[in-house]
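Sample log: GNAT family protein.
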Amino acid sequence: MIRKRNLQECHSLYNLINDPEVFPYVRYKCQSYEEYLFVTKQLMVEEEQMTCISRTILNEIGHPIGTIDLYNIENKAGFLATWIGAPYFGQGYNQRAKESFFTELFLEHRIETVFLKVRKQNIRSKKAVEKLPYAKLANDLNPHVYASINPNEQIYDLYQVELSDFLEANEGMQHEVAT
């Protein structure tokens, strides 16, 4: 479902990122394949420096269909950025990728809080986040972070996922499966 980034997948991902349904919402708006390759190399270096964790989202047959990153990691917290290619919208990849990534972040990397900033007009992303039982709207819970992502005008909603909420939700899901 997810794997560490590698440069061989950049061409496939670059083709997906340029779709007009995807491009406005990606973090790095690369104008060329070479720029996308450079950004990917930078992310790999940032991961070595432990300021970013970046993964490729794969479909069932192992083809790259998007990326998921935790960036600006400080004090066991960071911001999530996810995009999936338009041909794969509405097929459950986003939620499955987030489940896998959160498991890795919380259990392997000891992250405690994941923030998600979502453009208020990005209804598709808002719905995807709101499907996660452990994600909370955090505009009022973390007013200083909310203000930092909206310095001039309120463009983004802030959501957060806490380690304890994620574990609690997954414990409940495991209990339902067991019974």
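Observation: The chain is about 40% helix and 25% strand.
Observation: The two ends are 26 Å apart (CA to CA).
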